[in-house]
Design goal:
The protein is of the alpha/beta class. It has helices at about 5-10, 30-35, 50-65, 85-100, 115-125, 140-145, 160-165, 195-205, 220-230, 250-260, 280-290, 300-315, 335-349, and strands at about 15-20, 40-45, 70-75, 130, 150-155, 170-175, 180, 210-215, 235, 265-270, 275-280. The chain starts with a helix and ends with a helix. Bound molecules: flavin mononucleotide.
Length: about 350
Amino acid sequence: MSTPADLRTLLGIELPIVQAPMAGGFTTAELVAAVSNAGALGSAGAAYLTPSAIHALVAEIRLRTQRPFAVNLFAGGIEAGEADPAPMLALLGPLHDRFGIPPPQAPGAWPYDFEEQLAAVIDAGVPIVTFTFGLPGDAAIARMRAAGRTVIGTATTVGEARRCEAAGCHAVVAQGAEAGAHRGTFLVPFEAAMIGTIALVPQVVDAVGVPVIAAGGIVERRGVAAARALGASGVQCGTAFLDTVEAGTSAPHRRALAAARDRDSVVTRAFSGRPARGLVNAFEQQVDARPDAILPYPQQNALTRPLRNAAAAAGDPENISLWAGQAAPLMLHDVTAADVVRDLAAGWA
Ligand SMILES: Cc1cc2nc3c(=O)[nH]c(=O)nc-3n(C[C@H](O)[C@H](O)[C@H](O)COP(=O)(O)O)c2cc1C
């Protein structure tokens, strides 16, 4: 069994705490660097960035820290097949009118190419590269390993964790059902992989020889202590960092997090077409009442983006994705990333 010391050595960090990558503008260079400078591992979510934006973000992080950091990509998840966008366009039309933006358009080609993104991450010299929604091909993992990069995959089942290890990952994130935002599931239908963190982590620890990083519902010191007791070598926390001063979280999202209660959390395909956990709001309820109209990922994501952007700019929490894990009511508010790292680290100690 791998130990916490193995993970710290592998990642070159003092504290076995990983700030989760959060694509969509949350994980700013300021947040990633502040976490790494506090002795944990900062991670940038780059799934919605072009190669040039990835280079720019990595340069910004390097200006702010000399310590190791990670960059994360979505290695899969694109659903094949054409779906009729007309019902969703009809549903979105009145909402676009309300925010005074042009009528919704059928989504064009998805603007992000995984192979180009991966090439940018490798060219930029990122030391730790993490993946969710699947894994890159074996040859790409072998190239990263040969170049001295650390590779980490995400698993939501024991089988996915074994696949990550067999593919050459140095460590695995075990993502429990409590986790905020998208499910990382890639080998089975997502409904078959809603395993709670307390059940999943020890099973993954028993199944693989590489360090296991527990994720999902860990937002303060008690969750970290629990993860350690389950045999995890470290923790990965997303929600915990969403209301830090360095995060790129919008004002209405922060307000909703501050008001979150235990029963507010739902897994929904309404925003992106892929199951993801967030706080219930009007858009989620309206769209989940019409599951037939939801387009596959990432078409639904592209289609709802203009509305989400307009709603965020207007300060409206009812028409944006309010990503959060089930433990959001326990998170700290109006704090720095270093404050959060300090609290989580107290749980490990
Ligand atoms: C706003 C948000 C965005 C996320 N985006 C990503 C992502 O881009 N890549 C990824 O691997 N995980 C992503 N996650 C999931 C985290 O890696 C992690 O599994 C999750 O945050 C753990 O649960 P917690 O939110 O309860 O801490 C995201 C989580 C949140 C809250």
